[in-house]
């Protein structure tokens, strides 16, 4: 009997703990938005974080984008030429990158490259009591440390996703036109006819902004909430990557369902 | 690394990101060919629109002159009412006819406009009266099958 009671107790504790964290994360998010005045007024702080999250992720984003586009070119050609429509390769590469792969893969890379770094940095600042020291000096650590990182992530993410898509389309162009020999004019003109600026590109940008908010929110919260021990920080870093990857994929489904199935057509 | 170098790199990132967006919008998308000039709306009713969708192109002589703005079902005439946005720079006579055509055998469907000889031009809110429905492949096949069946019936009678 006591075993069942223990089990129920453990279950209840887990659920309350999760709810507590969710509630705290939401309050943290609102507090961070309200106190982001410093981050925007002293924009230098944010610029510095854009350097660490955005500029330093540039190489991985560009190289991965190039390779993803090249693979899309090879695989897409293989399927399309069976139906005699290999000129549609540009459409396939551009639509899949702009709509889905650009925001999603760039978001996943961003979460593992920049999100984990943000969590580890904030977690270590907490473990080495730099955060408490700031509070002692009447400096709000959320305004001074957390908000600039958040805004830097939100600003960098759409830029990185756009660069990923552009690099991918260039990779698809290299493979499709120069390696395989698809007609260059048909490649670009069919792409331009099929890709719509509002329907496809703008929706892709919206997706990447949403992913940017989700990833950096999770990263700064996990860092801020990490137990101030070496183990706690390492666990928080792992959780950031896992949770934000899941969040990106789940949000992508929701956003795609909202954007591309509503209304008539596409 | 001092501050000014960081600023330079961040500036480079932002410039590259914006350039990538511009590339997507102009080279990949159709913003350049998407004119901001005024459009006028013309209606047309079709007995069957097949697979025509909103935003399908409207072509005349093979050139895109507009896009389908809206497709709805007219509950009085039991026909499909198609609203077309035609770019203001293209004027069509009032007795222009509209057809629903397919690009290629299995391609997407579009509206083809064929200019008439009237001297008055179509205005916003006008209706195209001469329309021709989409060719539905299933109907064509069943017609073909029936005619074949009839022919073979005749043949067998003649043989007797």
Structure commentary:
The complex is a heterodimer of chains A (266) and B (160). Chain A has 266 residues and is mainly α. Chain A has helices spanning 2-34, 37-41, 43-53, 58-80, 89-127, 130-136, 141-180, 184-194, 197-225, 230-260. In chain A, α3 packs across α7 (141-180) and α5 runs antiparallel to α10. Chain A is elongated. Chain B is of the alpha/beta class and 160 residues long. Chain B folds into two domains: 1-34; 39-141, no CATH class. Chain B has two helices and eight strands; from the N terminus they run αββββββββα. Chain B has an eight-stranded mixed sheet with strand order 7-1-4-3-2-6-5-8, with no helix packed on it. Chain B is elongated and about 95 Å long. The model of chain B has no long low-confidence stretch (mean pLDDT 83). Chain A binds chain B through residues 44, 47-48, 50-51, 54-55, 58, 94, 98, 156, 158-160, 162-163, 165-167, 169, 188, 191-193, 195-197, 199-201, 205, 263-266, and chain B through 3, 6-7, 9-10, 12-14, 16-18, 20-21, 23-25, 27-34, 53-55, 71.
């Amino acid at each position: 009997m006591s075993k069942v009671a223990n089990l129920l107790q453990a279950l209840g504790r887990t659920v309350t703990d999760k709810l507590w964290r969710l509630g705290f994360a939401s309050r943290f998010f609102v507090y961070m938005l309200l106190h982001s005045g410093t981050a925007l007024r002293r924009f230098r702080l944010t610029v510095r974080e854009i350097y660490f999250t955005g500029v330093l992720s540039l190489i991985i984003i560009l190289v991965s984008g190039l390779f993803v586009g090249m693979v899309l070119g090879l695989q897409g050609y293989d399927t399309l030429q069976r139906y005699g429509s290999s000129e549609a390769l540009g459409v396939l590469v551009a639509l899949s990158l702009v709509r889905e792969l650009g925001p999603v893969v760039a978001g996943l890379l961003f979460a593992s490259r920049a999100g984990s770094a943000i969590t580890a940095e904030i977690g270590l600042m907490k473990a080495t009591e730099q955060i408490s020291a700031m509070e002692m000096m009447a400096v709000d650590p959320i305004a001074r440390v957390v908000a600039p990182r958040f805004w830097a992530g939100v600003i960098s993410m759409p830029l990185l996703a756009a660069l990923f898509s552009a690099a991918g389309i260039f990779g698809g162009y290299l493979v499709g036109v120069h390696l395989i020999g698809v007609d260059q004019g048909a490649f670009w003109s069919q792409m331009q006819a099929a890709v719509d600026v509002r329907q496809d590109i703008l929706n892709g940008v919206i997706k990447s902004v949403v992913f940017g908010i989700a990833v950096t929110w999770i990263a700064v919260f996990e860092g801020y909430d990490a137990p101030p021990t070496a183990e706690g920080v390492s666990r928080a870093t792992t959780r950031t990557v896992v949770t934000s990857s899941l969040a990106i994929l789940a949000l992508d489904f929701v956003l795609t369902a909202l954007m591309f199935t509503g209304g008539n057509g596409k | 690394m001092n501050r000014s170098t960081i600023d330079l790199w961040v500036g480079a990132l932002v410039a590259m990101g914006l350039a990538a967006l511009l590339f997507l919008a102009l080279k990949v998308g159709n913003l350049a060919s998407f004119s901001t000039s005024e459009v006028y709306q013309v209606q047309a009713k079709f007995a069957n629109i097949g697979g025509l969708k909103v935003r399908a192109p409207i072509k005349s002589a093979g050139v895109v002159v507009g896009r389908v703005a809206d497709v709805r079902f007219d509950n009085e005439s039991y026909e499909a009412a198609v609203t077309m946005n035609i770019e203001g720079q293209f004027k069509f006579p009032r007795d222009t006819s509209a057809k629903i055509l397919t690009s290629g055998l299995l391609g997407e469907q579009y509206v083809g406009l064929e200019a008439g000889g009237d001297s008055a031009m179509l205005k916003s809110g006008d209706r195209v009266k001469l329309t021709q429905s989409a060719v539905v492949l299933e109907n064509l096949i069943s017609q073909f099958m029936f005619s074949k069946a009839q022919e073979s019936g005749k043949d067998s009678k003649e043989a007797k």
